[in-house]
Amino acid sequence: MSKQTKILFVCHGNICRSPMAEFVMKNLCVQAGLSDRFVIDSAAVSTEETGNDIYPPAQRKLREKGIPLTHRSARQITRADYDFYDHIICADSSNLRWIERLLGPDREHKITLLMEWVNGEKANISDPWYTGDFEAAYRDIDLGCRALLGKLTEEEQTVGCN
User: Fold this and answer.
1) What is the rounded CA–CA span in Å between residue 81 and residue 42?
2) Is 127 an annotated catalytic residue?
């Protein structure tokens, strides 16, 4: 088996966008037969929601879209996460600033915005906790995860050819 690619999705509280991305990405990997090639989790930059499960409207949106999910407890990102994960994927630019305050500079260039994987632009995913628009957040997350999976599997194939 080839090396597993480790991905951590991050948002403010780890109850809406990052767990949605975690479960969307896991589902995409299952559908593509690639589950054994990825380790996928999510975390928060804040401690406000530590221990809480996914916000009920986010759970409903995932179920509506046929995305399997399990109970999970929100947690804050740690230095050990930075060392462990290959890619730390943030929902918005505020998350990037929080991570730098918590962990210091991104010396290994592991941290990106999810939407950067779509078209290279530093676009944010609106927080449905504030907007109430879980459909828009889901659409962006799904688009971002599909682009991320495509680019990572493309990179792996390119590296494997060398």
Assistant:
1) 10
2) yes
Burial of 67-102, coded b for 16+ CB within 10 Å and e otherwise, reads: bebeebebbbbeeebbeebebbbbbbeebbebbeee
Model confidence, pTM:
0.94
For residue range 66-112, list pLDDT tens digits in order.
999 999 999 999 999 999 999 999 999 999 999 999 999 999 999 99
11 is catalytic: yes
Phi, psi for 7 (deg, rounded to 5): -125, 130
Spot the catalytic one: 41, 81, 92, 127.
Answer: 127
Residue type, 95: N
Question: Could you give phi then psi for residue 71, rounded to 5 degrees?
Answer: -60, 140
DSSP element (H, E) containing 39: strand 38-44
138, 20 Cβ separation under 8 angstroms: yes
Identify the active-site residue in 16, 17, 92, 145: 17
What distance separates the 2 farthest-apart alpha carbons in the chain? 47
Q: How confident is the model at residue 154 (pLDDT cuts 50, 70, 90)?
A: confident
Active-site residue flag, 86: no
